[in-house]
């Protein structure tokens, strides 16, 4: 049987919108989830959030580079490859980040850390140009 960490990496390494059905195999019913955009409690709310989030995404995969596992905690370092028609002219956006999970058979806590500006705002045509100019002056 695969460890929780291996199941997690496998699920997100090949993430698709239809992967939402696998969430109950990976997460506990009372999961706590947080990313730079939202904080969510419970599997139904997480399922809805991810369904809304990935509704218009062409593809989203995670390449896991490193991990630290200690007891019932893990920190996973990754690069997300996101393709969305409204970001970066429809080309792939690469976003480095990390995830902290806690688990007891299933993931009960999931928190993502990444630069939301690099993922979203910098990829928008007008706003992205302004942000890149500002970052270049700092």
Can you walk me through this structure?
The chain has 138 residues and is of the alpha+beta class. The chain has one domain: Nuclear Transport Factor 2, Chain: A (Roll). The protein is built from 5 helices and 6 strands. Strands 2-1-6-5-4-3 form a 6-stranded mixed beta sheet. The longest helix is centred in the last third of the chain and has 13 residues. The chain is globular and about 45 Å long.
Structural class: alpha+beta
* Number of self-contained structural domains: 1
The overall average pLDDT, rounded, is: 86
**What is the CATH fold-level name?**
Nuclear Transport Factor 2, Chain: A
Strand elements, count: 6
Largest sheet strand order: 2-1-6-5-4-3
Helicity, as a percent range: 25-40%
Strand content: 35-45%
Task: State the distance separating the first and last CA atoms.
Answer: 49 Å
Q: How many separate helices?
A: 5
- Helices and strands, in N-to-C order? HHEEHEEEEHH
**Dominant shape:** globular
By oligomeric state, this entry counts as single chain
Instruction: Please describe the biggest sheet, giving its number of strands, its sense, and whether it closes into a barrel.
Output: 6 strands, mixed
Radius of gyration: 16 Å
Give the uncertain stretches in residue-range form: none
Level-2 CATH architecture: Roll
